[in-house]
Design goal:
Blueprint lengths: L3 E2 L10 H9 L12 H14 L4 E5 L2 H10 L6 E6 L3 H4 L4 H6 L2 E5 L8 H7 L10 E8 L10 H13 L3 E6 L2 H8 L14 E5 L9 E5 L8 H7 L8 H11 L3 H20 L6 E2 L7 E5 L2 H8 L2 E2 L1 E4 L4 E5 L6 H14 L5
Parallel strand pairs: 1-11, 3-4, 3-5, 5-6, 6-7
Antiparallel strand pairs: 2-8, 7-8, 9-10, 10-13, 12-13
């Protein structure tokens, strides 16, 4: 029996339309390394959202996208300011610091979101050769705590950065879910908000190992081909990566997938509202639900369903939904939570 998973949107399979696009690309002999028509089509579709001048580089995974994107902006004596909960700080095994040779300065936040004031407190030692020089602010959209930066919040950070000769990087592993939550187009989370480089996540939204780096500052473009190659993120059979983006960007499949994932999170949160022994810590803003349960209830539920304990000390769990999560799966999970949690309340 397959366990119903609320562990991660990475646990979902690839969307059938994405798989069909990959199969359709598997014909004939085609130039490699992105010199093919399908990659050109995918880049053109990305530029419809992010602007005609956007440089788009397809890569294999989210860590690769973040490292490649950050490397266009930062030198080894400079630093990246990020939330202490940021994926680049917590879940990338030190890859940014290893491959960039630069320091991450992690900041305690509320809800996983940086503010200009928080960044300002972490930016010190300017022009002092004894200290690393703050060069990049990196934010995650939606955040690792399921919150979403508003456009105003992003613009405030970009204004702060640009006034100080800094850059703003956006880790968009769940950019589709954030865009849907805000009711905006993908492009509004890019140059329109002052973002300089972003990672565009497709894998969590129905792809099978396809991400992109989108560079929005002209002076950062020239180095991209070399950085991507050196970082081992250049696909020889690029058409199979590009085909996935064409599928997701056709007829707004990216949006439909994100709408569904977000709706399933909202359904789950509503289903456990008021249940004894369950404290949902925040109203879901994207496709994540965070809740606090008795550890005995967590153990009992994890025997039947896959999900992670997010904070061992507070007994906070994370429940993730995806494009593939069904209403029946949510309702089955809610029923068991309603049965189990009150026992330990």
């Amino acid at each position: 029996m397959t366990t119903i998973s609320f562990g991660s949107d990475n646990h979902a399979g690839a969307h059938p339309d994405v798989l069909a696009a990959v199969v359709a690309a598997n014909t004939g002999t085609v130039p490699g390394y992105g010199d093919d028509e399908l990659t050109g089509e995918a880049v053109a579709m990305m530029r419809e959202h992010f602007g005609a001048d956007a440089e788009v580089a397809f890569v294999f995974n989210g860590t690769g996208a973040n490292v490649v994107g950050l490397q266009t902006m930062v030198r080894s004596f400079e630093s990246v300011i990020c939330a202490e909960t940021a994926h680049i700080n917590v879940d990338e095994c030190g890859a940014p610091e290893k491959f960039l040779g630069a320091k991450l300065v992690d900041v305690t936040t509320v809800g996983g979101k940086l503010t200009p004031d928080l960044v300002d407190a972490a930016r010190w030692g300017v022009d002092d050769p004894h200290h690393v020089q703050a060069k990049v602010i990196s934010i995650t959209q939606s955040t690792e705590l399921g919150t979403v930066y508003s456009l105003d919040e992003i613009q405030a950070l970009s204004s702060y950065a640009h006034e100080r000769d800094m850059y703003l990087h956006l880790d968009g592993a769940r950019i589709a879910n954030a865009a849907v939550s805000l009711g905006v187009d993908l492009g509004e989370l890019g140059h329109a908000s002052g973002v300089d480089v972003l990672s565009f996540g497709a894998t969590k939204n129905g792809a099978l190992g396809a991400e992109a780096v989108v560079v929005l500052r002209p002076e950062l473009v020239a180095a991209m081909p070399y950085i991507r190659k050196q970082a081992m993120q250049l696909s020889s059979k690029m058409r199979f990566v590009s085909a996935q983006f064409v599928a997701l960007l056709t007829d707004d499949l990216w949006k439909r997938n994100a709408v569904h994932a977000n709706a399933m999170a909202a359904r789950l949160a509503a289903g456990v509202e008021g249940v004894a022994g369950v404290q949902v810590t925040d109203v879901p803003q994207a496709n994540a639900v965070f809740a606090i349960l008795d550890p005995r209830a967590i153990t009992a539920l994890q025997a039947e369903f896959a999900f992670y304990t997010w904070n061992e000390s507070t007994h906070q769990v994370r429940w993730m939904t995806s494009w593939a999560t069904t209403e029946d799966e949510v309702d089955t999970f809610v029923t068991r939570i309603r049965d189990v949690a009150p026992t330990y309340a």
